[in-house]
Amino acid sequence: MAFEGLQDKLALTFKNLRGKGVLTEKDVDEVMREIRLALLEADVNFKVVKEFVETVREKALGQEVLKSLNPAQQVIKLVNQELITLMGGTNSKLTYSPTGFSVYMLVGLQGTGKTTTAGKLAYYLKKEGKNPMLAALDIYRPAAIEQLKLVGKAVDTPVFSMEDEKDPVKIGEKAITEARKKGLNAVILDTAGRLQIDEELMEELSRLKKACKPHEILLVVDALTGQDAVNAAEGFNERLGIDGIIMTKLDGDSRGGAALSTKKVTGRPIKFAGISEKPDGLEPFHPERMASRILGMGDMLSLIEKAEESYSEEAAKEMEKKMRKNEFTLEDFLDQMGQIRKMGGLAKIVDMLPGQRNKGQEIDTDEGEREFKAMEAVILSMTREEREKPSVLNASRRKRIAQGSGQPVSRVNTLIKRHDEMKKMMKQFSSGKMNKRYKGAGLPF
Protein backbone atom coordinates (compact mmCIF):
# COMPACT_ATOMS: atom_id res chain seq x y z
CA MET A 1 0.00 0.00 0.00
CA ALA A 2 1.10 3.57 -0.68
CA PHE A 3 3.35 5.14 1.98
CA GLU A 4 3.22 1.99 4.11
CA GLY A 5 6.84 2.26 5.30
CA LEU A 6 6.63 5.99 6.03
CA GLN A 7 3.30 5.55 7.80
CA ASP A 8 4.72 2.88 10.11
CA LYS A 9 7.79 4.92 11.05
CA LEU A 10 5.86 8.13 11.70
CA ALA A 11 3.30 6.21 13.76
CA LEU A 12 6.08 4.89 16.00
CA THR A 13 7.67 8.34 16.30
CA PHE A 14 4.41 9.98 17.33
CA LYS A 15 3.55 7.14 19.69
CA ASN A 16 6.74 7.88 21.64
CA LEU A 17 5.98 11.59 21.49
CA ARG A 18 2.52 11.19 22.98
CA GLY A 19 4.01 9.72 26.12
CA LYS A 20 5.53 13.09 27.02
CA GLY A 21 3.42 15.58 28.94
CA VAL A 22 5.76 18.49 28.28
CA LEU A 23 8.04 18.94 25.28
CA THR A 24 11.53 20.41 25.46
CA GLU A 25 13.66 21.65 22.58
CA LYS A 26 15.63 18.42 22.86
CA ASP A 27 12.42 16.39 22.47
CA VAL A 28 11.53 18.34 19.34
CA ASP A 29 15.01 17.83 17.88
CA GLU A 30 14.76 14.07 18.47
CA VAL A 31 11.37 13.94 16.75
CA MET A 32 12.68 15.97 13.81
CA ARG A 33 15.61 13.60 13.46
CA GLU A 34 13.27 10.62 13.31
CA ILE A 35 11.03 12.38 10.79
CA ARG A 36 14.08 13.25 8.66
CA LEU A 37 15.22 9.62 8.61
CA ALA A 38 11.71 8.39 7.84
CA LEU A 39 11.36 10.76 4.88
CA LEU A 40 14.80 9.91 3.51
CA GLU A 41 14.06 6.18 3.77
CA ALA A 42 10.83 6.87 1.88
CA ASP A 43 13.05 8.20 -0.95
CA VAL A 44 11.96 11.82 -0.59
CA ASN A 45 14.29 14.32 -2.25
CA PHE A 46 17.10 15.36 0.15
CA LYS A 47 16.56 19.11 -0.33
CA VAL A 48 12.83 18.69 0.16
CA VAL A 49 13.42 16.76 3.40
CA LYS A 50 15.80 19.39 4.73
CA GLU A 51 13.40 22.26 4.09
CA PHE A 52 10.42 20.30 5.42
CA VAL A 53 12.12 19.41 8.71
CA GLU A 54 13.45 22.93 9.24
CA THR A 55 9.99 24.42 8.69
CA VAL A 56 8.28 22.02 11.11
CA ARG A 57 11.02 22.44 13.72
CA GLU A 58 10.82 26.22 13.61
CA LYS A 59 7.06 26.17 14.10
CA ALA A 60 7.21 23.41 16.72
CA LEU A 61 9.60 25.45 18.85
CA GLY A 62 7.07 28.25 18.99
CA GLN A 63 5.91 29.00 22.51
CA GLU A 64 2.28 28.18 21.63
CA VAL A 65 3.30 24.57 20.92
CA LEU A 66 5.69 23.86 23.78
CA LYS A 67 3.34 25.40 26.32
CA SER A 68 0.10 23.95 24.93
CA LEU A 69 -1.95 21.41 26.90
CA ASN A 70 -1.26 18.76 24.28
CA PRO A 71 2.08 19.61 22.61
CA ALA A 72 2.43 16.20 20.93
CA GLN A 73 -0.88 16.68 19.13
CA GLN A 74 0.23 20.14 18.05
CA VAL A 75 3.41 18.73 16.50
CA ILE A 76 1.41 16.09 14.62
CA LYS A 77 -0.91 18.84 13.40
CA LEU A 78 2.09 20.83 12.13
CA VAL A 79 3.48 17.79 10.30
CA ASN A 80 0.07 17.18 8.74
CA GLN A 81 -0.18 20.80 7.55
CA GLU A 82 3.31 20.76 6.07
CA LEU A 83 2.69 17.44 4.30
CA ILE A 84 -0.41 18.94 2.70
CA THR A 85 1.56 22.01 1.63
CA LEU A 86 4.38 19.85 0.31
CA MET A 87 2.02 17.91 -1.97
CA GLY A 88 0.30 21.01 -3.33
CA GLY A 89 -2.06 22.31 -0.66
CA THR A 90 -5.34 21.51 -2.38
CA ASN A 91 -6.61 19.22 -5.11
CA SER A 92 -5.55 20.60 -8.50
CA LYS A 93 -8.35 19.65 -10.85
CA LEU A 94 -8.11 18.89 -14.54
CA THR A 95 -9.22 21.99 -16.43
CA TYR A 96 -11.26 22.26 -19.62
CA SER A 97 -10.88 24.71 -22.47
CA PRO A 98 -13.40 27.59 -22.38
CA THR A 99 -14.01 26.92 -26.09
CA GLY A 100 -15.63 23.61 -25.15
CA PHE A 101 -13.00 21.55 -27.00
CA SER A 102 -10.02 20.37 -24.95
CA VAL A 103 -6.78 18.74 -26.07
CA TYR A 104 -4.67 16.83 -23.54
CA MET A 105 -1.13 15.81 -24.41
CA LEU A 106 0.31 12.90 -22.42
CA VAL A 107 4.12 12.82 -22.25
CA GLY A 108 6.65 10.74 -20.37
CA LEU A 109 9.43 8.17 -20.59
CA GLN A 110 8.91 4.62 -21.84
CA GLY A 111 7.44 2.19 -19.37
CA THR A 112 5.57 4.72 -17.22
CA GLY A 113 2.17 3.53 -18.43
CA LYS A 114 1.19 6.39 -20.76
CA THR A 115 -1.00 4.30 -23.05
CA THR A 116 -3.03 2.62 -20.29
CA THR A 117 -3.23 5.99 -18.52
CA ALA A 118 -4.64 7.54 -21.69
CA GLY A 119 -7.49 5.02 -21.51
CA LYS A 120 -8.09 5.72 -17.83
CA LEU A 121 -8.14 9.46 -18.54
CA ALA A 122 -10.72 8.86 -21.28
CA TYR A 123 -12.80 6.87 -18.78
CA TYR A 124 -12.54 9.76 -16.30
CA LEU A 125 -13.54 12.33 -18.93
CA LYS A 126 -16.58 10.27 -19.86
CA LYS A 127 -17.66 10.20 -16.21
CA GLU A 128 -17.36 13.99 -16.29
CA GLY A 129 -19.77 14.15 -19.22
CA LYS A 130 -17.17 14.60 -21.98
CA ASN A 131 -16.91 12.76 -25.31
CA PRO A 132 -13.21 12.06 -25.84
CA MET A 133 -11.12 10.56 -28.62
CA LEU A 134 -7.76 8.81 -28.18
CA ALA A 135 -5.04 9.60 -30.72
CA ALA A 136 -2.15 7.17 -31.37
CA LEU A 137 0.98 9.27 -31.86
CA ASP A 138 3.55 6.70 -30.78
CA ILE A 139 4.79 5.48 -34.17
CA TYR A 140 8.02 3.99 -32.85
CA ARG A 141 7.16 1.39 -30.21
CA PRO A 142 6.08 -1.95 -31.69
CA ALA A 143 2.34 -2.61 -31.26
CA ALA A 144 1.80 0.76 -29.52
CA ILE A 145 -1.10 1.61 -31.85
CA GLU A 146 -2.70 -1.81 -31.35
CA GLN A 147 -2.35 -1.45 -27.60
CA LEU A 148 -4.14 1.90 -27.66
CA LYS A 149 -6.93 0.40 -29.77
CA LEU A 150 -7.43 -2.33 -27.17
CA VAL A 151 -7.41 0.27 -24.40
CA GLY A 152 -9.93 2.38 -26.32
CA LYS A 153 -12.21 -0.60 -26.78
CA ALA A 154 -12.07 -1.37 -23.05
CA VAL A 155 -13.29 2.15 -22.19
CA ASP A 156 -15.63 2.44 -25.22
CA THR A 157 -13.71 5.37 -26.70
CA PRO A 158 -12.83 5.90 -30.40
CA VAL A 159 -9.15 5.73 -31.33
CA PHE A 160 -7.63 7.73 -34.20
CA SER A 161 -4.53 6.40 -35.96
CA MET A 162 -2.70 6.77 -39.29
CA GLU A 163 -0.72 3.60 -39.82
CA ASP A 164 1.35 4.88 -42.78
CA GLU A 165 2.06 8.40 -41.47
CA LYS A 166 5.54 8.90 -40.03
CA ASP A 167 5.07 12.41 -38.62
CA PRO A 168 3.34 12.46 -35.20
CA VAL A 169 2.53 16.15 -35.64
CA LYS A 170 0.42 15.48 -38.73
CA ILE A 171 -1.35 12.63 -36.91
CA GLY A 172 -2.13 14.92 -33.97
CA GLU A 173 -3.49 17.69 -36.20
CA LYS A 174 -5.64 15.25 -38.18
CA ALA A 175 -6.97 13.65 -34.99
CA ILE A 176 -8.14 17.03 -33.69
CA THR A 177 -9.82 17.82 -37.04
CA GLU A 178 -11.60 14.45 -37.08
CA ALA A 179 -12.75 14.79 -33.46
CA ARG A 180 -14.31 18.16 -34.22
CA LYS A 181 -16.06 16.75 -37.30
CA LYS A 182 -17.56 13.93 -35.24
CA GLY A 183 -18.85 16.30 -32.58
CA LEU A 184 -16.45 15.09 -29.88
CA ASN A 185 -15.12 17.60 -27.37
CA ALA A 186 -11.82 16.18 -26.09
CA VAL A 187 -8.72 14.60 -27.62
CA ILE A 188 -6.06 12.71 -25.68
CA LEU A 189 -2.71 12.59 -27.50
CA ASP A 190 -0.76 9.45 -26.59
CA THR A 191 2.79 10.45 -27.51
CA ALA A 192 5.98 8.43 -27.87
CA GLY A 193 8.48 8.00 -25.05
CA ARG A 194 12.16 7.21 -24.72
CA LEU A 195 14.23 5.35 -22.17
CA GLN A 196 15.60 8.73 -21.14
CA ILE A 197 15.11 12.39 -22.03
CA ASP A 198 16.90 13.24 -25.26
CA GLU A 199 16.98 16.10 -27.76
CA GLU A 200 15.09 14.21 -30.46
CA LEU A 201 12.20 13.45 -28.12
CA MET A 202 11.97 17.01 -26.84
CA GLU A 203 12.09 18.44 -30.35
CA GLU A 204 9.21 16.22 -31.42
CA LEU A 205 7.13 17.09 -28.35
CA SER A 206 7.85 20.80 -28.81
CA ARG A 207 6.57 20.63 -32.41
CA LEU A 208 3.47 18.80 -31.20
CA LYS A 209 2.85 21.43 -28.56
CA LYS A 210 3.15 24.23 -31.10
CA ALA A 211 0.93 22.55 -33.72
CA CYS A 212 -1.78 20.98 -31.54
CA LYS A 213 -1.93 23.69 -28.84
CA PRO A 214 -2.91 21.33 -25.99
CA HIS A 215 -5.02 22.81 -23.22
CA GLU A 216 -2.95 20.80 -20.74
CA ILE A 217 0.30 18.85 -21.01
CA LEU A 218 0.24 16.01 -18.49
CA LEU A 219 3.42 14.17 -17.56
CA VAL A 220 3.00 10.49 -16.70
CA VAL A 221 5.58 9.22 -14.18
CA ASP A 222 6.01 5.86 -12.43
CA ALA A 223 5.89 6.21 -8.63
CA LEU A 224 7.96 3.05 -8.22
CA THR A 225 11.01 4.73 -9.80
CA GLY A 226 11.28 7.16 -6.87
CA GLN A 227 13.75 9.97 -7.46
CA ASP A 228 14.07 9.00 -11.14
CA ALA A 229 10.42 10.05 -11.47
CA VAL A 230 11.22 13.37 -9.82
CA ASN A 231 14.20 13.94 -12.11
CA ALA A 232 12.08 13.11 -15.16
CA ALA A 233 9.41 15.56 -14.00
CA GLU A 234 12.00 18.27 -13.55
CA GLY A 235 13.51 17.59 -16.99
CA PHE A 236 10.20 17.58 -18.88
CA ASN A 237 9.02 20.70 -17.11
CA GLU A 238 12.19 22.63 -17.92
CA ARG A 239 12.19 21.65 -21.59
CA LEU A 240 8.49 21.47 -22.38
CA GLY A 241 6.52 23.17 -19.63
CA ILE A 242 4.00 20.77 -18.12
CA ASP A 243 0.67 21.61 -16.49
CA GLY A 244 0.34 18.64 -14.18
CA ILE A 245 1.55 15.18 -13.26
CA ILE A 246 -0.16 11.80 -13.36
CA MET A 247 1.58 9.42 -10.98
CA THR A 248 1.04 5.78 -11.91
CA LYS A 249 1.50 2.69 -9.69
CA LEU A 250 1.11 4.73 -6.52
CA ASP A 251 -0.76 1.81 -4.99
CA GLY A 252 2.35 -0.35 -5.34
CA ASP A 253 4.82 2.19 -3.92
CA SER A 254 5.25 1.53 -0.20
CA ARG A 255 7.71 4.42 0.12
CA GLY A 256 5.97 7.32 -1.62
CA GLY A 257 9.01 9.56 -2.08
CA ALA A 258 8.09 10.63 -5.60
CA ALA A 259 4.63 11.83 -4.55
CA LEU A 260 6.17 13.86 -1.74
CA SER A 261 8.85 15.45 -3.92
CA THR A 262 7.55 16.26 -7.39
CA LYS A 263 5.38 19.29 -6.53
CA LYS A 264 8.15 20.94 -4.54
CA VAL A 265 10.83 20.25 -7.14
CA THR A 266 8.84 21.16 -10.27
CA GLY A 267 6.21 23.56 -8.97
CA ARG A 268 3.66 21.51 -10.91
CA PRO A 269 0.81 19.68 -9.14
CA ILE A 270 0.02 15.98 -9.11
CA LYS A 271 -3.42 15.90 -10.71
CA PHE A 272 -4.09 12.17 -10.73
CA ALA A 273 -2.83 9.03 -9.02
CA GLY A 274 -2.93 5.61 -10.66
CA ILE A 275 -4.22 3.16 -8.06
CA SER A 276 -5.02 0.05 -10.12
CA GLU A 277 -4.86 -1.44 -13.62
CA LYS A 278 -8.64 -1.20 -14.08
CA PRO A 279 -10.21 1.46 -16.36
CA ASP A 280 -11.43 3.34 -13.29
CA GLY A 281 -8.01 3.12 -11.62
CA LEU A 282 -7.22 6.82 -11.97
CA GLU A 283 -8.20 9.08 -9.08
CA PRO A 284 -7.88 12.83 -8.57
CA PHE A 285 -4.98 13.47 -6.20
CA HIS A 286 -6.00 15.10 -2.91
CA PRO A 287 -2.99 16.31 -0.84
CA GLU A 288 -5.01 16.67 2.36
CA ARG A 289 -6.41 13.13 2.10
CA MET A 290 -3.00 11.66 1.29
CA ALA A 291 -1.43 13.45 4.27
CA SER A 292 -4.18 12.05 6.47
CA ARG A 293 -3.40 8.50 5.28
CA ILE A 294 0.34 8.98 5.86
CA LEU A 295 -0.32 9.96 9.47
CA GLY A 296 -2.66 7.00 10.01
CA MET A 297 -5.77 9.16 10.18
CA GLY A 298 -7.43 7.33 7.31
CA ASP A 299 -9.29 8.78 4.33
CA MET A 300 -12.98 8.51 5.01
CA LEU A 301 -13.95 10.99 2.27
CA SER A 302 -12.39 8.81 -0.42
CA LEU A 303 -13.97 5.74 1.18
CA ILE A 304 -17.41 7.37 1.04
CA GLU A 305 -16.88 8.42 -2.59
CA LYS A 306 -15.88 4.86 -3.49
CA ALA A 307 -19.02 3.54 -1.81
CA GLU A 308 -21.21 6.05 -3.66
CA GLU A 309 -19.67 5.03 -7.00
CA SER A 310 -20.15 1.30 -6.47
CA TYR A 311 -23.49 1.40 -4.65
CA SER A 312 -26.50 2.84 -6.45
CA GLU A 313 -28.95 5.11 -4.66
CA GLU A 314 -31.74 2.57 -5.28
CA ALA A 315 -29.66 -0.24 -3.77
CA ALA A 316 -28.81 1.92 -0.75
CA LYS A 317 -32.49 2.71 -0.17
CA GLU A 318 -33.41 -0.95 -0.50
CA MET A 319 -30.72 -1.92 2.00
CA GLU A 320 -31.91 0.77 4.42
CA LYS A 321 -35.43 -0.59 4.12
CA LYS A 322 -34.22 -4.10 4.94
CA MET A 323 -32.20 -2.79 7.86
CA ARG A 324 -35.25 -1.09 9.32
CA LYS A 325 -37.26 -4.32 9.06
CA ASN A 326 -34.30 -6.40 10.27
CA GLU A 327 -34.48 -8.50 7.10
CA PHE A 328 -30.75 -8.73 6.33
CA THR A 329 -30.36 -12.15 4.66
CA LEU A 330 -27.35 -14.23 3.64
CA GLU A 331 -28.12 -13.21 0.05
CA ASP A 332 -27.64 -9.60 1.16
CA PHE A 333 -24.46 -10.63 2.98
CA LEU A 334 -23.15 -12.08 -0.32
CA ASP A 335 -24.08 -8.87 -2.12
CA GLN A 336 -22.16 -6.78 0.42
CA MET A 337 -18.98 -8.78 -0.24
CA GLY A 338 -19.44 -8.09 -3.93
CA GLN A 339 -19.77 -4.36 -3.24
CA ILE A 340 -16.53 -4.39 -1.24
CA ARG A 341 -14.77 -5.96 -4.23
CA LYS A 342 -16.14 -3.19 -6.47
CA MET A 343 -14.58 -0.68 -4.11
CA GLY A 344 -11.15 -2.20 -4.69
CA GLY A 345 -11.16 -5.04 -2.20
CA LEU A 346 -10.49 -5.29 1.49
CA ALA A 347 -6.92 -3.98 1.22
CA LYS A 348 -8.10 -0.71 -0.36
CA ILE A 349 -10.74 -0.21 2.31
CA VAL A 350 -8.35 -0.91 5.19
CA ASP A 351 -5.87 1.56 3.66
CA MET A 352 -8.54 4.28 3.95
CA LEU A 353 -9.68 3.42 7.49
CA PRO A 354 -8.26 5.61 10.27
CA GLY A 355 -5.99 4.50 13.06
CA GLN A 356 -5.26 0.87 12.23
CA ARG A 357 -1.48 1.18 12.31
CA ASN A 358 -1.43 3.72 15.11
CA LYS A 359 -3.39 1.27 17.25
CA GLY A 360 -1.01 -1.52 16.37
CA GLN A 361 -3.82 -3.42 14.66
CA GLU A 362 -2.08 -4.92 11.65
CA ILE A 363 -4.74 -6.43 9.43
CA ASP A 364 -3.90 -9.39 7.22
CA THR A 365 -5.91 -8.36 4.15
CA ASP A 366 -4.80 -11.45 2.20
CA GLU A 367 -6.30 -13.64 4.92
CA GLY A 368 -9.41 -11.46 4.81
CA GLU A 369 -9.77 -11.99 1.06
CA ARG A 370 -9.41 -15.76 1.53
CA GLU A 371 -12.10 -15.61 4.21
CA PHE A 372 -14.36 -13.76 1.77
CA LYS A 373 -13.93 -16.45 -0.87
CA ALA A 374 -14.65 -19.22 1.65
CA MET A 375 -17.82 -17.47 2.83
CA GLU A 376 -18.94 -16.98 -0.77
CA ALA A 377 -18.45 -20.70 -1.46
CA VAL A 378 -20.56 -21.56 1.60
CA ILE A 379 -23.42 -19.21 0.69
CA LEU A 380 -23.43 -20.33 -2.95
CA SER A 381 -23.84 -23.94 -1.75
CA MET A 382 -27.11 -23.06 -0.03
CA THR A 383 -30.60 -23.20 -1.45
CA ARG A 384 -32.51 -19.95 -1.93
CA GLU A 385 -34.68 -20.80 1.09
CA GLU A 386 -31.58 -21.27 3.26
CA ARG A 387 -30.12 -17.95 2.14
CA GLU A 388 -33.37 -16.11 2.80
CA LYS A 389 -34.12 -17.91 6.10
CA PRO A 390 -30.89 -18.92 7.89
CA SER A 391 -33.01 -20.09 10.82
CA VAL A 392 -33.78 -23.33 8.91
CA LEU A 393 -30.10 -24.31 8.88
CA ASN A 394 -30.10 -27.33 11.17
CA ALA A 395 -27.15 -29.70 11.70
CA SER A 396 -27.85 -31.91 8.65
CA ARG A 397 -28.22 -28.94 6.32
CA ARG A 398 -24.98 -27.41 7.60
CA LYS A 399 -23.16 -30.68 6.98
CA ARG A 400 -24.51 -30.84 3.40
CA ILE A 401 -23.48 -27.23 2.74
CA ALA A 402 -20.00 -27.87 4.13
CA GLN A 403 -19.51 -30.82 1.79
CA GLY A 404 -20.84 -28.89 -1.21
CA SER A 405 -18.58 -25.89 -0.60
CA GLY A 406 -15.46 -27.86 0.29
CA GLN A 407 -15.34 -26.14 3.69
CA PRO A 408 -15.48 -27.57 7.23
CA VAL A 409 -18.73 -27.37 9.18
CA SER A 410 -17.03 -24.95 11.55
CA ARG A 411 -16.72 -22.48 8.64
CA VAL A 412 -20.47 -22.74 8.01
CA ASN A 413 -21.14 -22.12 11.70
CA THR A 414 -18.80 -19.12 11.72
CA LEU A 415 -20.57 -17.59 8.72
CA ILE A 416 -23.98 -17.93 10.35
CA LYS A 417 -22.62 -16.40 13.55
CA ARG A 418 -21.17 -13.43 11.61
CA HIS A 419 -24.44 -12.96 9.78
CA ASP A 420 -26.28 -12.82 13.10
CA GLU A 421 -23.77 -10.25 14.38
CA MET A 422 -24.22 -8.21 11.20
CA LYS A 423 -28.00 -8.26 11.67
CA LYS A 424 -27.62 -6.96 15.21
CA MET A 425 -25.31 -4.19 14.00
CA MET A 426 -27.74 -3.27 11.22
CA LYS A 427 -30.55 -3.10 13.76
CA GLN A 428 -28.51 -0.67 15.86
CA PHE A 429 -27.78 1.48 12.81
CA SER A 430 -31.43 1.58 11.76
CA SER A 431 -32.40 2.75 15.26
CA GLY A 432 -30.50 6.00 14.70
CA LYS A 433 -27.08 5.19 16.13
CA MET A 434 -25.39 5.28 12.72
CA ASN A 435 -23.60 8.46 11.65
CA LYS A 436 -25.93 10.23 9.21
CA ARG A 437 -23.11 11.07 6.85
CA TYR A 438 -22.07 7.46 6.37
CA LYS A 439 -25.68 6.32 6.18
CA GLY A 440 -26.40 8.78 3.40
CA ALA A 441 -23.40 7.48 1.48
CA GLY A 442 -24.79 3.96 1.43
CA LEU A 443 -21.66 2.30 2.75
CA PRO A 444 -21.99 -1.45 2.16
CA PHE A 445 -20.81 -2.59 5.58
Strand arrangement, largest sheet?
3-2-4-1-5-6-7-8
Number of strands: 8
Write down the domain tally: 3
Rg from Cα: 26 Å
Q: Based on Cα principal axes, name the global outline.
A: flat
CATH architecture of the largest domain: 3-Layer(aba) Sandwich
Protein model, in words:
This protein has helices spanning 4-18, 25-41, 46-60, 63-66, 71-86, 114-127, 144-154, 168-181, 199-212, 227-239, 257-266, 287-294, 300-310, 313-325, 330-342, 346-352, 365-380, 384-388, 395-405, 409-433, 436-441, and strands at residues 102-107, 132-136, 159-160, 186-190, 216-222, 244-248, 270-274, 282-284. The protein is of the alpha/beta class. The longest helix is centred in the last third of the chain and has 25 residues, at 409-433. The chain has an 8-stranded mixed β-sheet, sandwiched between helices. α2 (25-41) packs antiparallel against α3. The chain has 3 domains: 4-86, Four Helix Bundle (Hemerythrin (Met), subunit A); 102-290, Rossmann fold (3-Layer(aba) Sandwich), CATH 3.40.50; 301-441, Signal recognition particle, SRP54 subunit, M-domain (434 Repressor (Amino-terminal Domain), Orthogonal Bundle). 39% of the residues are buried. The protein is flat. The protein contains 21 helices and 8 strands.
Secondary-structure blueprint:
Layout: H1 4-18, H2 25-41, H3 46-60, H4 63-66, H5 71-86, E1 102-107, H6 114-127, E2 132-136, H7 144-154, E3 159-160, H8 168-181, E4 186-190, H9 199-212, E5 216-222, H10 227-239, E6 244-248, H11 257-266, E7 270-274, E8 282-284, H12 287-294, H13 300-310, H14 313-325, H15 330-342, H16 346-352, H17 365-380, H18 384-388, H19 395-405, H20 409-433, H21 436-441
Parallel strand pairs: 1-4, 1-5, 2-3, 2-4, 5-6, 6-7
Antiparallel strand pairs: 7-8
